[in-house]
Design a protein that fits this description.
This protein is an alpha/beta fold and 319 residues long. It has twelve helices and ten strands. Strands 1, 2, 3, 4, 5, 6, 7, 8, 9 and 10 form a ten-stranded mixed beta sheet that branches. Helix 2 (34-48) links the parallel strand 1 and strand 2 (52-56). The protein is globular.
Length: 319
Amino acid sequence: MLKSLKSITFGVLAATLMAGVAHADITVYTAGPQGLIDKLSAGFTKQTGVKVNVFQATTGKVMARIEAEASNPVVDVLISASWDTATDFAKRGWLVSYTSPNAARVPDFLKTDTAVAQGISALGIAWNTKSGTPKPAEWADLTKPEYKDLVNIPDPAQSGSSFELTAALAGQDDFKLFKDLKDNGAIIAGANAEALNPVLQGAKAAVFGAVDYITLNAKEKGEAIDVIFPESGTVIAPRPAMILNWSKNQDEAKKFIDYMLSDEGQTLVADQMLMPARTDIPANRPLISDLKLLKYDTAAVYGKRKETLKQVTDTFGGK
């Protein structure tokens, strides 16, 4: 009887320990869409038993939270909307080297030893098709009289992708395009969603430099909105996922990266109208090969970030 009881007790203890391991939590901070991280978390938990704690916000707010928690960091996996985050964190020595087996079909320019793209967005002109304005084809079209006081621009200080577009275009003409936009009544209107909402509501006609997946999702839901990618060129925004080296759950974090890059995970990315990182996953939207990309030196662009943002403030006004 005692032997049997010991056996049962040991069995219960082992099961409890195993359950504890299987259900260890990981914490993911993401600047990506809430719907995507919710679905990835649910799918990952269903597959592995590992629970996911999520903080979703703009890149700026995510970075601020990481800084605020510097003395007691809790994030295991970070998904940024700007590749510069991965470059910066790697230089600081904050990242774990990991190459997922599922990254084999991710192009080399979308992965490093310490980061891999979750998906990719591109920037375009979000245009309200019922605005009564002519359909724009180029960035400069939004400086025309028909768009007087009807254009929003996402804040480059809050949106990494908006910053890159601003820097790339401003580098071509010393900010002339943006000065013309200002003279035509364009305004800096908060982060990406804040810039787009008035266009969806009809108060504005267009967003200069809209994140495409947000617009494409709205169009899919029947909104009177379209996205145009100028033939003169645009920028893409790969969204790097990385594991922080202070994580106490690195094995589980690696499994999350594996799931994110699995067939199921990348299909969820494509369902959000982002370009999948893997080239073998279909998507019902334009891909990198369909776009003309502006040429610029990313390191040089971010090396002059403060100067560029000051020029934006000087051009459009602000604190």
